[in-house]
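We emphasize that the prediction below concerns an isolated chain of 851 residues; any contacts that depend on oligomerization or on bound cofactors are therefore not represented. The input was used exactly as deposited, without trimming of termini.
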Amino acid sequence: MLSLYRTLSLRYLRRRWSRAALIVVSITLGVAILVATQMLKQSMIQAGQAAANPLAGTYDLEISNSDFGVPRELADQLAHARIPGVKSIQPLVVGRVVLPELSSRSALLLGVGFDADKTADNPWGLEVRITNPLALLPGRKAVFLGKNLAESLERGFTTVRVRAGGQEQQLAGAGTIDAHGPAAALGGNVLVMRIADAAAVVGQPQMVTEIHLALETGADRDQVRRLVEDRVAGKAEVRTPEADVESIRDIMAGLEVAFSLGGLAALVVGLFLVYNALSVSVAERGPEIGILRSLGATRGQIAGLFAGEAGLLGLTGALAGVPLGATLANLGLGFIEQVLTDIFVPLEARPPAVTPVIFIAAVSAGLLTSLSAALVPAIQAALHEPAEVVRRTPSRRGLASRLLQTGASGLLIAAGMGCLALRDVLPPRAGSFGCVVLIFLGLLIATPLLAALGARLLQPPARLLLGIEGRLAADNLARSPGRTGLVIAAVAAVVALMFETAGVITTSEDAIFAWLDDLIAADLYVTANGPITSGGQTVPMRDNLAQQIAALPEVEAVIPVRFQRIDYHNKIVSLLAVGVSDFSVSSERVPASRRQAYERLSKPGTVLVSENFTVLYGVGEGDRLQIPSPRGPLDLQVVGTLVDYTWSRGTVFIDRAFYREYFQDPLIDLFDVYLRRPESDTESVRETLSRRWGAEHALVALTRDELRRGVSSAIRRLYSLLYVQEGIVGIVAALGVVTALLISVLQRRRELGLLRAIGASQGQVLRSVLAEATLMGLIGSAIGILFGIPLEWYAVRVIMVEESGFLFPVQISWVAAGILISLALAVATLAGFWPALRALRVHITEAIAYE
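Result of the prediction step, given as a token string:
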């Protein structure tokens, strides 16, 4: 076999290097997308976990209570209880602060219980260097800065200004700190304080964020957890580190799945290209195969020959795709980090790395793709008899081949429908995503049959509009569905995916803007330190600021809103405390449905829930709902539902007056400001806010139009990640067009030579090849739009509902359809120029010579 590879395979690949290069490039791009998406996914998940739980790995159990914290005295009670198996108990304060001196830079605040005289004796690996001992005197709020922050400030700093707990505060700079061991993930963007001082800074002097428990070696964690739960007695929740990881992954699950599907889509399209190229390679090398079979080569050797060539090309492409994917991941890291920071929480992602798992998976995927694509052509080559394969003209597909193709397509579609019907009993997401993947593959396998039908339908208009060149192109497409159909399927796949993405964007934008118009009617939206559209950068404000803003003569009403995150059924749910009693604006400004719902909410002990909350958890109007609170579980009555797109895991609305009294939380995240004359007072009120409170609170005010643009930008930036993936998949599909047309030129050398011999000009030959490329783009894009419509419906009405509970009305973007068809035609036509130029170099005498 090695001698066969040296004398036949390598010689053939050198002679057809351009085709081999296209196969390698397609595999390279597919593997690159897979590597880049997996690296970015891994980096973002790690950044999300670090943001939500920066000290993961330093404890075995965690006592927490959503965003409300737990009483600091609970740690002392647990310590006195001496629970068997518990080695240490460490209360912590973890929060975010803003540094006005560093352009309002966000940093992590960590309050820990360590003795400054024993700075190395702590479980987190915090190494402290004291530079200002006076800061440690009683009554002063001493702070240690991470090395990155210390380097950014002036040397010898003695004071540090921070904005937290709704006000600006001045801390005493005590020194610097390095994080080693388990706390190395903190990096240098951290402030460390004594636990009591940190609790006072964040505005909860009697609370801590969480309590960490380290267990003795050999202790049964489940048993210890049950003992701790008995001691906690409902005041908080006892969680494992794995539960925190799952909560973060749940929030980012949709993006994670989208990343994975994008990489797989590129490989699937590459598989079609490789299959197409190898199929024609089998047909082109018929005489070679016939001679080998006549000389005694076995069927296994023939199959191994083609499989080996495919494996070599696939391995080359996979190895080249790994560094390319790593480069793409590093280029896109900053953009994705900023998008997720604006939508979720501030993230500080580490540079992505190619782990051994990613490398092995990527190389295996590239190799498996090429070998899978070579399977059918290799078997076809092995099954041919010598007399068959030496024929000059490749045999046409028979009825059995078409029936096999139809059966495979129907089987995949039926399997997809089965996944849909059984998705409740299948593993999470296996049914929903398995359904769409299987049906989509089934439709793509049927695409060559649809392409042949489309080519026949286009023959009459092509003859009429494109002349003899168009007729030749349409005839060739109809005559060779096996060659062109797979490439058309690749084009259809790209167009369908892009059309589905465009439709999802249009659908979500229209629904969100309708929500903004109907339910958010304020003239200005005021936050601190950053706009509301960059939720990860805002900081809370004090509620007394509401009265000060409301006192402005131009202001009609100010409605305070507080955002909190609560744990509900192991999910992170949004809690919105809204100032219901402040809705004193006229009925023309606030929709009647919203006003009536908030009137019901004014009764103490009641809540409203979002529609997606009802869909996800089955809790609606008339039901009772239990949520965590600083005093333990709080039982509330659900009095209605609202359309709301604030949070993908559901939102609970509560009256802020009740919330402030029961939860003892005076902080506000957002002010909805209604003006008496918005058409004339908007800019003057913004200037007043900036002049009076800008320096102290760093207020930022957005108008409704600016909020709309900000939300639209966030949506488009999020979906642009998918567009980039699909764009690269489109490049792979364009390479497929190039390959198909090159193959067409090779197969039609005699036909092209005869055309030139009877008087066809070079221009006519050029236009014939380009017309074939254009028709391939037209048929592929039309089929793609046809596939994209149900794909969009499924994404909106099934996947988005199951993933987020959001019920969006499906909006078909016909503008996007027109753009995609035009783009597909342009790309396909451009891809046809190289094969067209190759067709011009066909020598008449060589092409029509008798073999």
